[in-house]
Specification:
Blueprint lengths: L1 E2 H11 L12 E4 L4 E6 L9 E8 H4 L9 H22 L12 E2 L6 E2 L5 E3 L3 E8 L3 E2 L2 E2 L1 H20 L6 H24 L1 E6 L6 E3 L2 E4 L15 E6 L3 E9 L2 E6 L5 H9 L4 E2 L8 E3 L3 E4 L7 E4 L17 E3 L4 H15 L3 E5 L5 H4 L3 H6 L14 H8 L2 E5 L12 E6 L2 E4 L1 H10 L18 E3 L15 E3 L4 E4 L2 E4 L9 H14 L9 H15 L17 H9 L6 E3 L2
Parallel strand pairs: 1-2, 16-23, 16-24, 19-22, 22-23
Antiparallel strand pairs: 2-3, 3-4, 4-8, 5-8, 6-17, 7-8, 9-10, 11-15, 11-18, 12-13, 14-15, 20-21, 24-25, 26-30, 27-28, 28-29
The structure holds adenosine-5'-diphosphate and magnesium ion (MG).
The site of magnesium ion has 3 residues, from helix 6.
Length: 571
């Protein structure tokens, strides 16, 4: 292997030459404290910066074995190291050193969640960090002196400060991994406890702002305090005994006056499928990992989804057992998103009245009198939510401050008053007895079957211009797949652009499993299994540092939103 002196010589040799001369430094270098690998040198100072890795052997890094002794801990450790690398690069990287991206050293930055990422790895042999470097240019020529400073002054300081145990705070690291381990343990316990979710006493649910996911600290912040009737005690590996609100399986209604914290609670539960960093406030807010947030999304495309449990008898006799549209209405989009989630394996649905189609959620007695059932294609959710649980075991958590009709179908009612939950199931039952709604159930006997669909590989074209495969994420909520755009705005449980990026590439990877009669569910599950076995790296040809883990539910949701998707019904 070449060494640091070789790299220095090579840089000096190409100084002042055309920028493409940087290509010559691709490869691995033994730098003593670590191995430096330049996987890809950018061809232009304005292009995406170069892909670089360092591998620090454990004889230097000396990370304690306990920090990666199980999967929860390993992921948390890696997340911790990524954050430290990011902080250190801010501290030690001088930044701008010429044209374009010249001078940057940047690692993928995690948000409030602890996700598995490809930015760092930890094994018994070494610690690896993957990041990008903007190889410096003056105009369009190699600026070797600056490159030397980056490789031999800045980078070693960053590596030492972030990947070597003795320079890290052990108590901070410990807290990080124990927090993640407790959350994973809690999530694992939900099933046994018959719960779909748990919200710990003392949790801080509100966020700093609509665009800032850090905890709210300004003004009055009310810590979560469980309702007595739903209080559950759990045992955690690190924190020990803990109490909080357990939300049992079945149909749960969250009611309460406007601005009393209903949506905030639901939002926290949506993200309870992920672990959160210490001091986030939601460290012990966890949800069943197969929980899917559902919302109306008018304008979306739908491809041959059997929405007949919710919608039938459309005008002009249009069939709904394989319903397609380029421009769904609010109600049909919400119906399709539910069926698609069930098809992909969702076990819990979360729905907020704020983002639902009213005519999908409710249809009261007076409306039933005025518009007879044979003139209304929609069977409202209220008539299906119990069957959903009874027939297929899928629980629903519903924020509904606007209609007491739901008292009739809920297993329990939680009322938010000034950001505190109260169990009002009995009171709601008494009211439901006293004031009968007189509405007729319209949902029939059964929920109806979920028909599976077979995606056709030819409907996925990742090519663009001369590029055979061109896929990229455009921010958190959009994937450019070939010449098409996948809009993920309504897929609300995505939290990080690196997830979106990985999903884009996973769609392409998934196509190799298609066309052998495999259903969408089977294809998605196979991709998820492959990633579990071999890691996210299998999604790309080169080692990249900017993937983050995602669920099969989001992968399926993205495929369902590809506007070219074509499917066959399963025979
Ligand atoms: P609802 O859905 O019941 O109308 P929201 O959940 O949207 O209410 O909450 C209304 C406002 O109250 C939001 O600005 C939110 O940040 C804030 N909020 C929510 N929970 C708390 C809390 N526990 N402490 C302080 N403010 C909160
Ligand atoms: Mg609300």
């Amino acid at each position: 292997m070449r060494d640091a002196a070789d790299l220095r010589r090579m840089l000096r040799r190409v100084d002042g030459r055309g920028y493409k001369a940087y290509k010559g430094i691709e490869g691995a270098y033994d730098c003593g404290e670590y191995i430096l690998i330049v996987d890809h040198a950018q061809g232009d100072p304005f292009a995406s910066p170069s892909l670089v890795r360092v591998q620090v052997p454990q004889r230097v890094a000396r990370l304690p074995r306990y920090a990666y002794s199980n999967r929860s801990r390993e992921i948390a450790l890696r997340d911790f190291l990524t954050r430290k690398f990011f902080d250190a690069s801010r501290r030690f990287c001088k930044g701008n050193r010429g044209t374009g991206n010249s001078g940057i050293i940047l690692i993928d930055l995690p948000g409030q969640e602890i996700l598995e990422r490809t930015s760092t790895f930890a094994t018994e042999l070494y610690v690896e960090a993957r990041f990008v470097m903007g190889l410096p240019a003056l105009g369009r020529t190699v600026a070797a002196r600056h490159a030397e400073a980056m490789f031999f002054e800045e980078l070693p300081q960053i590596v030492r400060a972030s990947l070597v145990f003795q320079n890290l705070s052990e108590s901070e690291l410990q807290k990080h991994i124990e927090t993640a381990e407790d959350a994973d343990s809690l999530r694992d316990q939900l099933d046994r406890l018959g719960l779909v979710a748990f919200v710990a006493d003392g949790a801080i649910l509100p966020r700093a702002s609509g665009i800032d996911p850090r905890p709210l600290t300004k003004g009055m912040v009310v810590p979560f305090q469980s309702a007595e009737s739903l209080r559950v005690k759990v045992e955690l590996p690190n924190q020990g005994a803990m109490t909080g609100m357990g939300i049992p399986n079945g149909v749960t209604l969250i009611v309460g006056g406007g601005y009393h914290g209903k949506s905030t609670l639901l939002r926290a539960l949506e993200l309870g499928v992920y672990n959160h960093i210490p001091d986030d406030g939601r460290e012990l807010v966890v949800t069943n990992p197969h929980t899917m947030k559902i919302r109306a999304e008018d304008g979306r495309r739908i491809e041959k989804v059997d929405i007949s449990p919710f919608i039938a008898n459309l005008p002009f006799g249009r069939k709904t057992s394989a319903f397609s549209t380029e421009d769904a209405s609010g109600s049909t989009s919400q119906a399709a998103s539910i069926i698609e989630a069930l098809e992909a394996g969702a076990q819990v649905l979360l729905i907020d009245e704020d983002t639902s189609a009213t005519n999908f959620m409710i249809r009261d007695h007076r409306m039933q009198e005025l518009v007879s059932k044979d003139k209304e294609p929609i069977t409202p959710f209220i008539d299906k939510v119990r069957q959903l649980y009874q027939d297929i075991g899928v629980s629903t958590l519903l924020v509904m401050g606007g209609s007491g009709d739901y008292f009739d179908v809920a297993d329990r009612v939680v009322c938010m008053v000034e950001y505190k939950p109260y169990g009002l199931t009995e009171q709601a039952r008494v009211i439901a007895e006293k004031h009968r709604t007189e509405r007729r159930p319209e949902g029939g006997e059964r929920f109806g079957s979920i028909s599976e669909r077979i995606p056709l590989a030819r409907s996925f074209d990742p090519s663009k211009g001369r590029r055979e495969v061109k896929i990229s994420s455009k921010g958190l909520q959009s994937i450019a797949f070939g010449t098409h755009t996948i809009d993920l705005e309504a897929v609300e449980q995505l939290v990080n652009t690196s997830q979106t990026r990985a999903i884009g590439d996973a769609i392409y990877y998934a196509t190799k499993y298609m066309d052998r009669g495999r259903t969408l569910r089977e294809v998605v599950d196979t991709v998820v299994e492959d990633i579990a076995k071999k890691g996210l790296d299998l999604l790309s040809a080169k080692p990249t540092g900017d993937y983050a883990a995602f669920r099969g539910l989001e992968l399926a949701a993205a495929i369902n939103r590809l506007r070219t998707l074509s499917v066959q019904a399963k025979a």
